[in-house]
Amino acid sequence: MKHRITRKEDLNAADYLIEVEASMVAERFLPGNFAVLITVPRGERIPMSIQKAEDGKITMLIKKLGKTSVELDSFEVGDSLEAVIGPMGNSPELKRYGNIVFASDLVCGHAENYALCKALQEIEGNHVTSIQTFPTKADIYPKKELSEAFCDEYYLTTLDGSCGIKGHYTEVLKDLLDEGKVDIIFAGGDIPALRDLAGLTEPYGVPTIVTVRQIMIDATGMCGSCRVFVDGEMKLTCIDGPMFDAHKLNFEDIINRMAMFKEKETRAMEYYNKKILPSVGFT
Amino acid sequence: MAKINKTRVPMREQPAEERIKNFDSVPLGYTDEEAMAEAQRCIQCKDPSCETECPVNMKIRAMIEKVAEGNFEEAFLIAKEDNPIPAISGRVCPQEDQCEGVCTMGKKADAINIGKLGAFLGDWAMQNGVTEELHIEERNEKVAVIGSGPAGISCAVDLRKLGYRVTLFEALHIAGGVLQYGIPAFRLPKDIVDYELSYLQKIGVDLRLNNIVGQNIKFDELRWEFDAIFIGTGAGAPRFLGIEGEKLMGVYSANEFLIRVNLMKAYKFPEYDTPIVCGDSVGVIGAGNVAMDAARCAVRLGAREVYILYRRTKQESPARDEELEHALEEGVIFEELVNPTRVLGSEDGWVTGIEMVRMELGELDDSGRPRPVKIEGGEFTMELDTVVNALGTLPNRLFLDRTPELETTPRGAIKTDEKLMTNVKGVFAGGDAMSGGATVIQALGEGKRAAASIHGYLSGI
Ligand SMILES: Cc1cc2nc3c(=O)[nH]c(=O)nc-3n(C[C@H](O)[C@H](O)[C@H](O)COP(=O)(O)OP(=O)(O)OC[C@H]3O[C@@H](n4cnc5c(N)ncnc54)[C@H](O)[C@@H]3O)c2cc1C
Ligand SMILES: Cc1cc2nc3c(=O)[nH]c(=O)nc-3n(C[C@H](O)[C@H](O)[C@H](O)COP(=O)(O)OP(=O)(O)OC[C@H]3O[C@@H](n4cnc5c(N)ncnc54)[C@H](O)[C@@H]3O)c2cc1C
Ligand code: SF4
Ligand code: SF4
Ligand code: FES
What was the ipTM of the complex prediction? Predict the structure, then answer.
């Protein structure tokens, strides 16, 4: 079954939004789920968080990082993806938590932020706060893709202070923690930032649940590429995650192993540029 | 009676120095004349022991008789009666422990090359477009088959032939299970697997790829919609030794290594998108078929030294004889009697070597093989930059994690009764998900047995 692209927009210079037809995924989606995309028959299987699911379509926020995400950016509305598989992964329990904070600083993070704030705010007794961090003003997503509309409290920060609060989400969070206003934290995005977050919240004893990205192949629990260590025990991000207790995760291992295919990924990009660009008239 | 040739008609193969540069089939197949000559060596035993040792009891004698006469079509149809995939089983069965191991000819001379004759017939039928004629009488009952490995394929085929409406759910984007993602193309060319799978669709099995039961389809939904269910989800969970250093870059499970290479075609990177990093010196832990496949893939990916690291000796290796021989011909080095204790790494997180301890063989263990025992002071290290864990298999967890109602063994395999029915009425299981890991032909046999049981169950027998 082909999956037609129904909407595609730039979010900033590096990130874009894509909406595709995927009725099975859309019908069964729960916040926190991801999808696995195969863009072309020779393609890899890449995991992407789902921001929202409506009318048989799912929306994802994608960063142009390497070959597949750059190539997908050349697709247009009306083009089709080879496969959209999911929903994958587990969703956190949607229940009354009290004061919830969702913090994010990258595509994969902002997408869950949107989905989870929306779902959790509907539950009585929840007070939802969202903090979204962008490097600079030009990187900030269009307002309708941010989670502000689904929050009781909302903070936007930029690293250089060009818009909103200056600094990273961890800094806003520190104030909230000091005020004793946080019962649980969900977070996603840059992995080293999540490691710092874990270090920040641990002394406060506030449960901290983070979305982990680890390189995936099959995403069905067969290869072990996405393994992470939780309290020393091996877990698979694809079927046990992607959300884990940040205070029990071995972050060094995740950060280390994500670099394993760097050289090959650079080669794939070079190959792609050489093959594709000349044919569309670049030199 | 003419004198019978004691030795097999040799199989032509790609020479080792050439085949290590490609992923094409190593054996080149029999010509018509060669197949007939090999078949003519069969003495047509009155009581063919070969057939009793074949897990699907293929009518080997009759099949070979027809090959000897040059009547390949009939020979193929005889094979097909019991075995939907002779082209595949002929290439992957451990024949030396099954049909060929007990062949009467084998007592005084070379056993008949039953496997290669089966493969010859499957290939011949594919090239000549020959299939069996089917008259399917449709029934109303619907059966769901989960997993499209050999167990699922054979169960689906048999149920469909009986007229059931069969839907086959497969988690991955390509059907075939281990036949696709595990066994490399130089051993089992993928056009053969594709052809057998196209047969499924030709006879009207509804194949649904990218459907992960328990994840994006609930098991309960299947129980509502279908009158019976067969579980053939396999034993493809990754395994590691659990020793220090396994977090390092350059450490793979055999599944990851093989899925990248075979399913995702990383050997054609960057033409295909999925990469693999394979170093110059590769250590593969284990000595079964999976280990041989990983080692031979590493050779083809350009590794200069590839080691099989095994606790026992070559004699105890559970791999097919042919794979072991081929691996050695291709330069794979067999390090016997070693047990890895630690993977060593560099500052930047890459594998640099492995620490091992030398072993010796002690008394026989439960499996009847000598137990490897540590030699005191036998520690040593070996420089490596890639380590592949090929340690045997564990049942796939995703489905089982989400179906707590199914009873399992302590090792996580699904429990069944003698009819292959699980503790849940109308739900059957077979193949590696039930056995914990065995062979293609055993999984296939269980798929067939389950189909017969399901037929019995649904028709109230
Ligand atoms: C659960 C999960 C959710 C994700 N959600 C999003 C999302 O919402 N938006 C988004 O842009 N990205 C998301 N990612 C990451 C995304 O899968 C990778 O960016 C993508 O695979 C990169 O492919 P590429 O060919 O473009 O780049 P590559 O050249 O393959 O890789 C570039 C870099 O991306 C990382 N990467 C590569 N492959 C993967 C992979 N399969 N999984 C994780 N990281 C990888 C590596 O660090 C690598 O250095 C998610 C990953 C996971 C595991
Ligand atoms: C590398 C390797 C080499 C081997 N070599 C040989 C050999 O030479 N000879 C031999 O006889 N045997 C060999 N074996 C063993 C043999 O392949 C297996 O015993 C056999 O394939 C088991 O068949 P199966 O149908 O039970 O499972 P599999 O072949 O494992 O198929 C299971 C299928 O189920 C799918 N699945 C899993 N979970 C779900 C779910 N929740 N929903 C939908 N689908 C799902 C999987 O994606 C997979 O496609 C080898 C195994 C490996 C790994
Ligand atoms: S199916 Fe396997 S065991 Fe049976 S005859 Fe063929 S090769 Fe031998
Ligand atoms: S046992 Fe050997 S010789 Fe006898 S019928 Fe079978 S294949 Fe032929
Ligand atoms: S991606 Fe293969 S086990 Fe998770």
Answer: 0.90
